[in-house]
Structures are given as structure tokens and as C-alpha cells.
Amino acid sequence: MEIVHVNNLQKAYGENIVLRGINFNANAGEIIGVIGKNGAGKSTFLEILMTLKPYDEGDVKVLSSELRTLSTQQIEHLRKNISAVLQPTQFYKTLKVVELLKLFKAYYNSSMDVEQIIKDFKLEPHRKKYFDKLSGGWKQIVSLAIAFLSEPKLLILDEPTTGLDPHMRNMLWTYITDYNKRTGGTVILTTHNMDEVELYCDKVMLLNEGINEVFDSTEGILSAGYKSINDFYLSKVSI
Ligand SMILES: Nc1ncnc2c1ncn2[C@@H]1O[C@H](COP(=O)(O)OP(=O)(O)OP(=O)(O)O)[C@@H](O)[C@H]1O
Fold first, then answer.
1. What is the ipTM of this complex?
2. Which atom of ligand 1 is nearest to the CA of 44?
3. Which of 110, 198, 200, 212 is the Cys-Cys partner for 229 at CB 3.0 to 4.6 Å?
4. Which residue's CA is minimally distant from atom 2 of ligand 1?
5. pLDDT tens digit string along 177-203?
């Protein structure tokens, strides 16, 4: 089942043409890594999928809805089935971690167990701390835990592991892959860590000069003769 379908997507900020014709699709249950150098347009692409940014040309279908044709109400409905963690946030100043998780559980009407989430994300020592007072990495972990709490069909993560220590990075990837196996949820993420892409992603989209220069399975790329995804990236992308 197709979860996302993108055809000839184009997006400019004024004179700066960032996306020049992206073709992309994500099927149910896939984990897809979007890679490319700083400023390539990865976040812009994810924000469009998340219905947070308008685009200039092309078709973008998410969970069978063509974004351009949706009313505000339909967009709100669609957003309930998508979860996203974009760049780390500074809100929720006055709530403790456990209160935040309970609040979002109620908001999403989620059947997930908050105590299990606290355990899975190693949040026990931080449960009574104010979100505002957590370190950057732990804020990110809490934001990720909240994203999973909605049991989304589509999860969009912008550099989810940046700033996490190796144990937390490992914990997050274990959670993502388990979630994906358990629920069949689709995950689209950006990262600059090519080892993670190689280990955990089914498919890779390389954004370069505004187009999807490569969109292939991780295995397909490796079987083309590259030693690693890092090797592939360095060969394909110039500074
Ligand atoms: N709101 C905005 N207004 C104007 N230009 C923007 C805006 N957001 C992004 N850009 C520009 O669009 C281009 C792509 O930015 P984007 O953040 O999508 O890239 P990225 O691949 O996610 O980069 P990075 O890896 O550094 O996070 C950059 O040239 C950036 O300056």
C-alpha cells in the first residue's frame, strides 16, 4: 500500500529554487532515509509532506490525499495520522515529563501505556523534571516519545539522532525498527549519519541539486559496488 506519492515536486523560496522536480514514493512498512548535503532541501521536503509548507508545482499524495486539494479541516484530519519530530523544540515550559506524556496520550486518544513508553525511552530518572530543564538530547527523546505515542501510520523525523549519545541513538533505532515491525508504520527521516542509513533504512533518497539523484533500496546501492553508504555518498556528492 502506498503511503506517500510525490511526482515532480518543485519548491522555491523567492529566487532560491530548492526542489526542482522530486519523484518519490513510500510504501507501508518502509523505513526511508533522505540524505544530502547541508541546504540540499531535506527539511523543506519533509515539511511539505507534513503539510507545514506550500509547494509550487507537482503532486504530493499523503495517505491517499492530494495535499493541494485539501480543506483546512481535511488537513487537520490528515495530521492526526502523521507524526513528526522536526527540530528540537523549546515549548512545554511548565509541564513535567510524565505530565506531558499523559497529556498527549489523552490528546491522541492513544491506547499506549505511558509507563511502558517511559521504560522504553529510559525516561525514569527524568519523569518528574520540567521539560524546559532537560538537556537538549533528553528534550529530543521526549519529543520522539510523544511522536510515537500517537501510533502514527506515518512518522516523519528530521535528524532524530543528531545530538544523542551512542546509547540513546541505539535505543532510538531499536524503538524505530520495533515500532515499524509491530505496527507496519512507515518512517521517513533525514540524517547525516550514513552508517545509520546502511544499518536501518530499507531505501535511500539522495537529494542533490534539487532532484532525487538516487532513489533506491539500500541493498541496491550497495550491490552497485559501493563499499558502504558513506562511500556512495562521498562518491556522488561534491562539497
Ligand atoms: N523559510 C525559509 N525561507 C527562505 N529560505 C529557506 C527557508 N527554509 C529553508 N530555506 C533555504 O532552503 C534551502 C534548503 O534548506 P533546508 O533546510 O530544506 O535544507 P536541509 O537539506 O534540510 O539542510 P541541513 O542538512 O543543513 O539541515 C537552503 O538554501 C535554505 O537556506
1. 0.98
2. 18
3. 198
4. 13
5. 999 999 999 999 999 999 999 999 999
